[in-house]
Design brief:
Blueprint: E1 3-9, H1 16-30, E2 35-41, E3 51-55, E4 58-63, H2 71-82, E5 92-96, H3 102-111, E6 116-120, H4 125-129, H5 134-142, H6 147-152, H7 154-169, E7 172-175, H8 178-186, E8 194-196, H9 210-219, E9 227-232, H10 241-254, E10 258-263, E11 282-286, H11 290-299, E12 302-305, H12 314-321, E13 326-329, E14 345-347
Parallel strand pairs: 1-2, 1-5, 2-4, 5-6, 6-7, 7-8, 9-10, 9-12, 10-11, 12-13, 13-14
Antiparallel strand pairs: 3-4
Helix pairs in contact: 2-3
Length: 361
Protein backbone atom coordinates (compact mmCIF):
# COMPACT_ATOMS: atom_id res chain seq x y z
CA UNK A 1 0.00 0.00 0.00
CA UNK A 2 1.30 3.46 -0.92
CA UNK A 3 1.91 5.80 1.99
CA UNK A 4 2.47 9.57 1.85
CA UNK A 5 3.93 11.78 4.59
CA UNK A 6 3.05 15.42 3.94
CA UNK A 7 5.41 17.58 5.95
CA UNK A 8 4.58 21.25 6.44
CA UNK A 9 4.36 23.98 9.00
CA UNK A 10 1.27 23.76 11.22
CA UNK A 11 -1.67 24.03 8.84
CA UNK A 12 -3.73 26.46 10.93
CA UNK A 13 -0.90 28.99 10.93
CA UNK A 14 0.58 28.29 7.49
CA UNK A 15 0.34 30.95 4.79
CA UNK A 16 -3.09 30.94 3.11
CA UNK A 17 -1.84 29.57 -0.21
CA UNK A 18 0.02 26.65 1.36
CA UNK A 19 -2.96 25.77 3.57
CA UNK A 20 -5.22 25.72 0.49
CA UNK A 21 -2.68 23.61 -1.40
CA UNK A 22 -2.62 21.03 1.39
CA UNK A 23 -6.41 20.89 1.54
CA UNK A 24 -6.69 20.31 -2.22
CA UNK A 25 -3.83 17.81 -2.23
CA UNK A 26 -5.28 15.71 0.60
CA UNK A 27 -8.65 15.68 -1.18
CA UNK A 28 -6.98 14.21 -4.28
CA UNK A 29 -4.93 11.70 -2.28
CA UNK A 30 -8.04 10.34 -0.55
CA UNK A 31 -9.32 9.12 -3.90
CA UNK A 32 -6.19 6.99 -4.41
CA UNK A 33 -6.77 4.94 -1.26
CA UNK A 34 -3.21 5.46 0.02
CA UNK A 35 -2.40 6.02 3.69
CA UNK A 36 -1.90 9.69 4.50
CA UNK A 37 0.25 11.17 7.27
CA UNK A 38 0.01 14.91 7.95
CA UNK A 39 3.25 15.83 9.71
CA UNK A 40 2.93 19.29 11.23
CA UNK A 41 6.04 21.17 12.30
CA UNK A 42 4.80 23.46 15.02
CA UNK A 43 4.70 27.21 14.50
CA UNK A 44 1.85 27.91 16.89
CA UNK A 45 3.03 28.79 20.41
CA UNK A 46 -0.38 27.82 21.81
CA UNK A 47 -0.03 24.20 20.64
CA UNK A 48 3.12 23.18 22.49
CA UNK A 49 2.40 19.46 22.92
CA UNK A 50 3.29 16.47 20.76
CA UNK A 51 0.26 14.47 19.66
CA UNK A 52 -0.90 11.86 17.17
CA UNK A 53 -4.48 11.88 15.90
CA UNK A 54 -6.14 9.32 13.60
CA UNK A 55 -9.17 10.14 11.44
CA UNK A 56 -10.09 7.46 8.93
CA UNK A 57 -7.00 6.74 6.82
CA UNK A 58 -5.43 10.10 7.77
CA UNK A 59 -3.00 10.33 10.66
CA UNK A 60 -1.87 13.73 11.97
CA UNK A 61 1.48 13.87 13.77
CA UNK A 62 2.07 17.25 15.38
CA UNK A 63 5.49 18.31 16.62
CA UNK A 64 5.47 21.16 19.16
CA UNK A 65 6.67 24.68 18.55
CA UNK A 66 10.40 25.17 18.98
CA UNK A 67 10.76 27.98 21.51
CA UNK A 68 14.53 28.11 21.59
CA UNK A 69 17.26 25.88 20.29
CA UNK A 70 19.01 24.51 17.30
CA UNK A 71 16.76 24.20 14.22
CA UNK A 72 19.05 21.51 12.76
CA UNK A 73 18.70 19.37 15.88
CA UNK A 74 14.94 19.95 15.86
CA UNK A 75 14.58 18.73 12.26
CA UNK A 76 16.76 15.68 12.83
CA UNK A 77 14.78 14.90 15.98
CA UNK A 78 11.57 15.00 13.95
CA UNK A 79 12.97 12.35 11.63
CA UNK A 80 13.99 10.05 14.47
CA UNK A 81 10.57 10.30 16.14
CA UNK A 82 8.82 9.61 12.86
CA UNK A 83 10.46 6.18 12.83
CA UNK A 84 8.16 5.27 15.74
CA UNK A 85 5.05 5.84 13.62
CA UNK A 86 6.07 5.41 9.97
CA UNK A 87 7.74 2.31 8.52
CA UNK A 88 10.42 2.75 5.88
CA UNK A 89 9.60 1.14 2.55
CA UNK A 90 9.80 1.63 -1.21
CA UNK A 91 6.11 2.59 -1.15
CA UNK A 92 6.71 5.55 1.16
CA UNK A 93 6.88 9.13 -0.18
CA UNK A 94 7.74 12.24 1.82
CA UNK A 95 6.06 15.31 0.37
CA UNK A 96 7.80 18.44 1.68
CA UNK A 97 6.07 21.83 1.74
CA UNK A 98 8.50 23.74 3.94
CA UNK A 99 11.64 25.69 3.12
CA UNK A 100 15.05 25.80 4.88
CA UNK A 101 14.82 22.09 5.66
CA UNK A 102 18.31 20.87 4.79
CA UNK A 103 18.67 18.96 8.05
CA UNK A 104 15.21 17.50 7.59
CA UNK A 105 16.04 15.95 4.22
CA UNK A 106 19.36 14.68 5.60
CA UNK A 107 17.50 13.04 8.48
CA UNK A 108 14.89 11.50 6.21
CA UNK A 109 17.54 9.98 3.96
CA UNK A 110 19.33 8.52 6.96
CA UNK A 111 16.26 7.16 8.76
CA UNK A 112 14.18 6.21 5.71
CA UNK A 113 16.67 5.09 3.05
CA UNK A 114 14.06 3.17 1.01
CA UNK A 115 11.65 6.09 0.68
CA UNK A 116 11.42 8.87 -1.92
CA UNK A 117 11.09 12.62 -1.37
CA UNK A 118 9.16 15.30 -3.28
CA UNK A 119 9.54 19.02 -2.67
CA UNK A 120 7.03 21.68 -3.77
CA UNK A 121 8.43 25.19 -4.22
CA UNK A 122 5.92 27.55 -2.60
CA UNK A 123 8.42 30.32 -1.86
CA UNK A 124 12.03 31.36 -2.41
CA UNK A 125 14.11 33.56 -0.11
CA UNK A 126 15.36 35.85 -2.88
CA UNK A 127 11.85 36.97 -3.79
CA UNK A 128 11.26 38.83 -0.52
CA UNK A 129 14.82 40.10 -0.26
CA UNK A 130 14.78 41.51 -3.82
CA UNK A 131 11.06 42.33 -4.13
CA UNK A 132 10.63 39.75 -6.86
CA UNK A 133 13.28 41.27 -9.13
CA UNK A 134 14.32 38.13 -11.02
CA UNK A 135 16.73 40.03 -13.30
CA UNK A 136 18.64 41.31 -10.28
CA UNK A 137 18.69 37.83 -8.73
CA UNK A 138 20.12 36.32 -11.92
CA UNK A 139 22.76 39.06 -12.03
CA UNK A 140 23.75 38.33 -8.41
CA UNK A 141 24.09 34.60 -9.08
CA UNK A 142 26.18 35.19 -12.21
CA UNK A 143 28.50 37.50 -10.28
CA UNK A 144 28.40 35.94 -6.83
CA UNK A 145 32.19 35.81 -6.59
CA UNK A 146 32.47 39.56 -7.19
CA UNK A 147 33.60 41.23 -3.94
CA UNK A 148 31.03 44.04 -4.00
CA UNK A 149 28.19 41.65 -4.83
CA UNK A 150 29.30 39.31 -2.04
CA UNK A 151 29.16 42.10 0.52
CA UNK A 152 25.92 43.77 -0.61
CA UNK A 153 23.92 40.58 -1.20
CA UNK A 154 25.50 38.24 1.35
CA UNK A 155 22.18 36.87 2.64
CA UNK A 156 20.80 36.29 -0.87
CA UNK A 157 23.88 34.32 -1.92
CA UNK A 158 23.95 32.34 1.34
CA UNK A 159 20.31 31.32 1.02
CA UNK A 160 20.72 30.54 -2.69
CA UNK A 161 23.49 28.06 -1.82
CA UNK A 162 21.34 26.50 0.91
CA UNK A 163 18.37 26.17 -1.44
CA UNK A 164 20.55 24.69 -4.20
CA UNK A 165 22.00 22.13 -1.79
CA UNK A 166 18.51 21.18 -0.62
CA UNK A 167 17.10 20.88 -4.15
CA UNK A 168 19.97 18.60 -5.14
CA UNK A 169 19.10 16.19 -2.31
CA UNK A 170 15.38 15.66 -2.93
CA UNK A 171 14.27 13.02 -5.44
CA UNK A 172 11.63 15.12 -7.22
CA UNK A 173 10.91 18.85 -7.45
CA UNK A 174 7.48 20.29 -8.23
CA UNK A 175 7.29 23.83 -9.60
CA UNK A 176 4.00 25.72 -9.60
CA UNK A 177 4.89 28.09 -12.44
CA UNK A 178 6.86 28.24 -15.68
CA UNK A 179 9.09 30.96 -14.23
CA UNK A 180 10.15 28.74 -11.33
CA UNK A 181 10.69 25.74 -13.61
CA UNK A 182 13.10 27.82 -15.70
CA UNK A 183 14.73 29.21 -12.57
CA UNK A 184 15.42 25.75 -11.13
CA UNK A 185 16.91 24.52 -14.39
CA UNK A 186 18.90 27.61 -15.38
CA UNK A 187 19.94 29.26 -12.11
CA UNK A 188 20.07 26.25 -9.79
CA UNK A 189 21.43 23.92 -12.48
CA UNK A 190 18.98 21.08 -11.81
CA UNK A 191 17.80 19.59 -15.10
CA UNK A 192 16.37 16.21 -14.10
CA UNK A 193 13.31 15.20 -12.08
CA UNK A 194 11.78 18.69 -12.14
CA UNK A 195 8.06 18.88 -12.86
CA UNK A 196 5.60 21.68 -13.59
CA UNK A 197 2.24 21.17 -11.84
CA UNK A 198 0.33 24.46 -11.47
CA UNK A 199 -2.25 24.87 -8.74
CA UNK A 200 -5.92 24.19 -9.33
CA UNK A 201 -9.20 24.45 -7.44
CA UNK A 202 -12.03 21.92 -7.50
CA UNK A 203 -14.89 24.11 -6.29
CA UNK A 204 -17.55 25.38 -8.67
CA UNK A 205 -18.79 28.97 -8.61
CA UNK A 206 -22.43 29.86 -9.14
CA UNK A 207 -22.54 33.33 -10.61
CA UNK A 208 -25.29 35.35 -8.92
CA UNK A 209 -27.87 37.19 -10.98
CA UNK A 210 -27.88 40.99 -11.14
CA UNK A 211 -30.81 41.10 -8.70
CA UNK A 212 -29.01 38.80 -6.26
CA UNK A 213 -25.84 40.91 -6.43
CA UNK A 214 -27.90 44.07 -5.86
CA UNK A 215 -29.45 42.56 -2.73
CA UNK A 216 -26.04 41.37 -1.54
CA UNK A 217 -24.56 44.84 -2.01
CA UNK A 218 -27.46 46.34 -0.13
CA UNK A 219 -26.80 43.99 2.79
CA UNK A 220 -23.22 45.32 2.90
CA UNK A 221 -24.44 48.94 2.72
CA UNK A 222 -22.88 49.49 -0.70
CA UNK A 223 -24.72 51.74 -3.14
CA UNK A 224 -25.63 50.30 -6.58
CA UNK A 225 -23.69 53.06 -8.33
CA UNK A 226 -20.37 52.47 -6.57
CA UNK A 227 -17.61 50.66 -8.42
CA UNK A 228 -15.89 48.17 -6.12
CA UNK A 229 -12.18 47.49 -6.67
CA UNK A 230 -11.02 44.32 -4.93
CA UNK A 231 -7.62 43.33 -3.53
CA UNK A 232 -7.26 39.94 -1.81
CA UNK A 233 -4.07 38.86 -0.06
CA UNK A 234 -1.62 39.59 2.72
CA UNK A 235 -0.90 43.23 3.46
CA UNK A 236 2.73 42.96 2.47
CA UNK A 237 5.03 44.95 0.19
CA UNK A 238 5.73 41.85 -1.94
CA UNK A 239 2.02 41.88 -2.84
CA UNK A 240 2.39 45.37 -4.34
CA UNK A 241 0.03 46.88 -1.81
CA UNK A 242 2.11 50.06 -1.31
CA UNK A 243 1.98 50.88 -5.01
CA UNK A 244 -1.72 50.02 -5.13
CA UNK A 245 -2.55 52.47 -2.34
CA UNK A 246 -0.58 55.26 -4.02
CA UNK A 247 -2.34 54.67 -7.35
CA UNK A 248 -5.77 54.47 -5.73
CA UNK A 249 -5.45 58.06 -4.52
CA UNK A 250 -5.23 59.14 -8.17
CA UNK A 251 -8.15 56.89 -9.11
CA UNK A 252 -10.38 58.48 -6.47
CA UNK A 253 -9.40 61.95 -7.64
CA UNK A 254 -10.58 61.08 -11.17
CA UNK A 255 -13.48 58.73 -10.32
CA UNK A 256 -14.95 59.63 -6.95
CA UNK A 257 -17.72 57.04 -7.00
CA UNK A 258 -15.52 54.01 -6.28
CA UNK A 259 -14.31 52.08 -3.29
CA UNK A 260 -11.30 49.83 -2.64
CA UNK A 261 -11.87 46.66 -0.59
CA UNK A 262 -8.71 45.14 0.90
CA UNK A 263 -9.28 41.61 2.18
CA UNK A 264 -6.52 39.78 4.02
CA UNK A 265 -4.37 39.72 7.15
CA UNK A 266 -1.53 42.09 7.96
CA UNK A 267 -0.61 45.41 9.49
CA UNK A 268 -2.87 48.17 8.16
CA UNK A 269 -0.63 50.86 9.67
CA UNK A 270 2.17 49.78 7.32
CA UNK A 271 0.25 50.95 4.24
CA UNK A 272 -1.92 53.89 5.30
CA UNK A 273 0.59 56.47 4.11
CA UNK A 274 -1.46 58.03 1.34
CA UNK A 275 -3.54 61.19 1.50
CA UNK A 276 -5.73 60.74 4.60
CA UNK A 277 -8.81 61.92 2.70
CA UNK A 278 -8.64 58.68 0.71
CA UNK A 279 -9.19 56.47 3.78
CA UNK A 280 -12.95 57.03 3.61
CA UNK A 281 -12.89 55.17 0.31
CA UNK A 282 -10.99 52.10 1.59
CA UNK A 283 -12.49 49.08 3.35
CA UNK A 284 -10.18 46.86 5.42
CA UNK A 285 -11.93 43.60 6.29
CA UNK A 286 -9.05 41.53 7.63
CA UNK A 287 -9.04 37.81 6.83
CA UNK A 288 -12.47 36.40 5.94
CA UNK A 289 -14.04 32.94 5.83
CA UNK A 290 -14.65 31.46 2.37
CA UNK A 291 -18.36 32.38 2.28
CA UNK A 292 -17.76 36.05 3.10
CA UNK A 293 -14.86 36.19 0.64
CA UNK A 294 -17.14 34.76 -2.05
CA UNK A 295 -19.57 37.61 -1.39
CA UNK A 296 -16.87 40.15 -2.17
CA UNK A 297 -15.87 38.34 -5.34
CA UNK A 298 -19.52 38.53 -6.45
CA UNK A 299 -19.95 42.20 -5.50
CA UNK A 300 -16.68 43.45 -7.00
CA UNK A 301 -16.47 45.19 -10.37
CA UNK A 302 -12.70 44.93 -10.91
CA UNK A 303 -10.08 42.67 -9.30
CA UNK A 304 -6.58 44.03 -8.64
CA UNK A 305 -3.52 41.78 -8.60
CA UNK A 306 -0.39 43.97 -8.19
CA UNK A 307 1.99 41.33 -6.76
CA UNK A 308 5.71 41.69 -7.39
CA UNK A 309 6.17 37.93 -6.90
CA UNK A 310 3.96 34.84 -6.72
CA UNK A 311 4.30 31.16 -7.44
CA UNK A 312 0.82 30.10 -8.58
CA UNK A 313 -1.76 32.16 -6.74
CA UNK A 314 -5.07 30.68 -5.62
CA UNK A 315 -6.39 34.24 -5.35
CA UNK A 316 -5.63 34.76 -9.03
CA UNK A 317 -7.44 31.51 -9.86
CA UNK A 318 -10.47 32.57 -7.79
CA UNK A 319 -10.61 35.96 -9.53
CA UNK A 320 -10.78 34.20 -12.89
CA UNK A 321 -13.30 31.64 -11.60
CA UNK A 322 -15.65 34.49 -10.66
CA UNK A 323 -15.29 36.04 -14.11
CA UNK A 324 -13.89 39.33 -12.83
CA UNK A 325 -11.97 41.70 -15.07
CA UNK A 326 -8.43 41.74 -13.66
CA UNK A 327 -5.73 44.39 -13.59
CA UNK A 328 -2.44 42.65 -12.80
CA UNK A 329 1.28 43.30 -12.68
CA UNK A 330 3.77 41.45 -14.87
CA UNK A 331 5.57 40.20 -11.75
CA UNK A 332 7.47 36.93 -11.44
CA UNK A 333 5.05 34.06 -12.16
CA UNK A 334 2.12 36.50 -12.23
CA UNK A 335 2.95 36.79 -15.94
CA UNK A 336 2.40 33.04 -16.22
CA UNK A 337 -1.23 33.48 -15.08
CA UNK A 338 -2.37 36.78 -16.59
CA UNK A 339 -1.88 37.85 -20.19
CA UNK A 340 -2.56 41.35 -21.48
CA UNK A 341 -5.67 41.52 -23.61
CA UNK A 342 -6.50 37.86 -22.96
CA UNK A 343 -7.63 37.54 -19.34
CA UNK A 344 -6.31 40.76 -17.80
CA UNK A 345 -4.97 44.25 -18.29
CA UNK A 346 -1.30 43.78 -17.43
CA UNK A 347 0.77 46.66 -16.06
CA UNK A 348 4.55 46.64 -16.31
CA UNK A 349 6.57 46.80 -13.09
CA UNK A 350 9.24 49.44 -13.48
CA UNK A 351 11.78 50.36 -10.80
CA UNK A 352 11.28 48.27 -7.67
CA UNK A 353 13.91 50.29 -5.80
CA UNK A 354 11.75 53.38 -6.00
CA UNK A 355 9.34 54.05 -3.19
CA UNK A 356 5.74 54.32 -4.35
CA UNK A 357 5.15 57.79 -5.72
CA UNK A 358 3.15 60.13 -3.53
CA UNK A 359 -0.40 60.76 -4.71
CA UNK A 360 -1.44 64.07 -6.17
CA UNK A 361 -3.15 66.36 -3.66
Amino acid sequence: MKEVCIISYTSNTAPGGVATYLKEYVFCLKKTGCRINLVELGTDKKRSEFYVKETGNIRTIHFPYLLKGDVDRYQKGVCRLLRLYVEDSGNLVFHLNCDHCNSLIDGLKKNFPLSKSVYVIHFSFWSAALQGDVALFEKIIRNQEDRNIKIKYKDVIHNYKREKSFLEKVDRIVCLSDDTLKMVKNQYGIKQNVWLIPNGLRKNVRQLSEDEIAKLRQSYYLSPEEKILLFVGRIDSIKGIDHLMACFADVVAAYANCRLAIIGPGDINAIVKTDKKVYAKVIFTGELDSKSLSHWYQMADIALFPSLYEECSYVGIEMMMHGLPVISSDGYSVRNMFFDGVNAKVVNIKNRDKKPRQPKN
